[in-house]
Each structure stands twice: as C-alpha cells, then as structure tokens.
Fold:
Amino acid sequence: MLERKWLQNNGRSFRFKASFSPCLILEIIQPDMQIIQKELAELAQHAPRFFNGSSVIIDPQKISGWDKADYETLKQLLLSQGLVPIGVRGGNAPQEEAAQLAGLPCLNTGKSAPLEIVPAVPENTLRETTRLVTSPVRSGMQQHAREGDLIVTSSVSAGAELVAAGHIHVYGVLRGRALAGANGNKDACIFCRTLEAELVSIAGYYLTKEEMASIPTTPSSIIQIYLQNEELHIRTL
Amino acid sequence: MTKIIVITSGKGGVGKTTTSASFAVGIANRGHKTVVIDFDIGLRNLDLIMGCERRVVYDFVNVIRGEANLKQALIRDKHVKDLCILAASQTRDKDALTMEGVEKVLKELSESFDYIICDSPAGIERGAQLAMYFADMAIVVTNPEVSSVRDSDRILGLLASKTRRAEEGKEAVSEHLLLTRYSPDRVSRGDMLSLADVNDILAIPVLGVIPESQAVLRGSNAGIPVIMDAESDAGQAYADAVARLLGEEVPHRFMDEKVHWLKRMFRFREKARHENTKSA
Structure:
C-alpha cells in the first residue's frame, strides 16, 4: 500500500492517479495467425479510422490449448494495423510466460483467484433476491423486493404497498398499490387474480383505480399488467 | 397463565371502552380474576363507563412513576367480585407511559390476575402501541363502515409487527374481530357494510357482532356496562362474545333484519302478487 504522501503531488515532478482509460479487448477465438491477419485487414478496410492508435488488451481465455502462444507475431500483426497492444489478461501460466517473452505485461495479477474455483450456482435454485410474502399485507405496510421479484400468496389491503425491482405476483386479492420495475425495468409485469388495486405502476408508468375501471377484465381470471409503447396494458391470460 | 388482551381499533368512537368494560365484567362474572386498564391517558373514560369515577384516587401513571403502589391504585368494581379497574390519568398525556413502566405493572398484575384487559386509546401512536405491545390476544373493534375497516386493517398490521410476540418471533398475537353498531336492516338496504364485506377485507375470526342498540348509550351514561343489561340485545351479544372468547361455541345472533309483523305481511302479499302476475 502506498502511503498517502506518494499519491499526492507534494512538489514532486509526477504523481500516480487511479484511472480507467478506455481500451479494446481482443478475444482470441481461433489462434490462427493467418486468418486473424486476413480478417483484421478486412475490418480495417471497412472502418479505417476505428483502429487508429487504439490500445488493445489481448484475452486468450476463450481458447484452452494455446500453450505455445505466439504473442510476438500477434503483436506485430496488431501494430501493422495501427493497434497498440498494451498487455495480456486472463491467460494460464504458460501463456503468461509467453506474453512476458513478447514484452507484453500480464494485467490479471490483481485477480489472484483462478476462475475454476468459483463455485457454480445450481441453475434450479430460486434467486435469493426473490421475496415470498405469505402473511396478509395490511393497510400501511410496505413489502419491498429491492432486487428481484415479489410473490404474495395472501391478500394486499387498501393502503398497503408492494414494490419490486422485478415482477409482482399476487395470489390473494390485490386492493393496495403495486409498483413493479421500481428501478426502471420496463419488462417487469404485475400478475394478479382480481384487480381491485388502488394503483398499478411499471417502471414509473401508472394507472389509477379510476383509469382501470374502464378496462374490462373477466372476473376470477389471471390478469397480467405490462408496459408496451410507454403505456400500461391489462390482459387476461 | 395470565392472558393479556388488548381492545383496539385504530379509529375513535367505535366502542373500545364499551367493549373493554363489558368484556371485563363478562370474564370476571365467570369467575376469572380480571383487571381492566385504561391506556387512554389524558382522556380517561373507562372509569365513567364502569361507574367508578368518584373513587379514583391514584392512577396508572402514578403507579408507573412510583408515586403509588398497585394496591392503592386498583379500584374494586362494585358490581362484580373478581374485577378491578386501573384508571388512566386525566392530567397527563400519553408520553407519561414508558415501555419499562408498563411492563413492570403488567408483570406485577400477572401475579394476581387471570386476565388483564388493556383498553387502547384511538390512533396508532405511543399509547396505542404500548397497549398492544405485551398482548397475547387482540380484540379488534370495528364499525361496519369503510374508514373503520381501513383503520382496523392498519392496526392488524401493527399487531403483526410491533408487538413483543412479533419482535421475539413467538406465536403471533391471536386476533379477533368484534363488529359493533351493526344494524341488519341498514345492511339489507345497502347503507352499511355487511359482516361478509368486513371479513372479506380483514379476514380474521369473528368473535361477535354487537347490534346497534339504545342500551349501549343508556348503560354508558349510567355507569353500568351494557353486558349487565341482560334484557338488551347488545348485552346478550356481549355475553355471547365473552363465552366465545373463553372457548365456548355459541351461535351468532342479532344478525338478521328485524321486520315488523305488518311489514312482513305486506311483503308476503307483494310476493304472492308477483307470483300471480308471473303465472298469468
């Protein structure tokens, strides 16, 4: 850890600053230098100014067996098209060695944990961000699913409020307010069985009870409220 | 094991104090040692309804502040043997109640009483929250009209979250609905919410329905809880509700329209005429 005085100017001729400058990542999908050269040249013809002087980080993660990584050739190849390779990230140990031989620094040293150790999340488990509410949501209460969906198996009284970043499902009677897509997710929906809500809202677009009264819905069906063309629509499934 | 029952509603004027007085008398009459506490500090009414206002010397706040002990402050009811009243203070406000003070008093009362009835003030502020905090059971008093139902719903939300049982994750406070000032003929005319309408929203077990009755006001003015007026329909309905609270199965009464015999006859004729025209 650098001491604070080194990070400040303090009369020196230079200073270090943390920064994220934009640069391109070149993911190698097929390590055939001839094909890469040909395709790069084609791209450069279509957009000649696109590559001009751009810095590039080479990422060999997509290919597994490229142990004899020929970074020297690749480096020259990129330079010839006006790209400036500044380093390599995400390679395995022999690839890193090859990169260093070619004079390219390895940029993934900050992330010490190898990717293989990351525990895989089983796909069939419910996301933890989904909230399940089984007790009645009474007047004055608010149930909030900050990141995911909100599922309510009981009734929601008038004066109660449901807020979710994702979808809202209500299996009892919905009499209160329901605000789905609270963080601006326009694909969020509200599902309920009887629509007596005071207000429904998706990503900030809303319908009040008065406005909903004019929309015909058959009783005791499943109702979906969704956003389309900046307008809320109600349909029965 | 002492049971602490809170009589609450959210809205004012729906019959909390009337209900507290009648339940206290009803439970004590069945041989359970009962105490009823007025939590409505600053607007004390329970002593009036119970007819003991002239005997109040020390009150609930005096006991909390250590200015009197419980024995001095408890007023024995003159009608029922096993009943005591702890009056509210009229000169203070609800901030005089503290959580520790209320807990201490309830703990001390638990040693000598079977039932402690807490008459909650209206609203959802400190007084009401302290009245419900230590409860094992809640009787939610509701009138058949939308604002009262809405407020009761709010109170049910608080009972599920702002009580000791809820905070300690114990078994929830058991909730009971008492619908008061019910008028079956106004319901049938569509002027009043029906029991079914109310219970559609609140969805808790119904302890009883108390009909709108002249006897309630008469009893309040005389300082005699309406349950003691065994002739009146309201008094009988309260007695039924107390029986249900103590675990008896009593059928619901006073929920049908009272129809005058002349009107009934007229209706019969109307119906007959209708049938005749249909067949012709």
Q: What stands out?
A: Chain A has two domains: 21-107, 131-236. The CA atoms of residues 153 and 171 of chain A lie 5 Å apart.
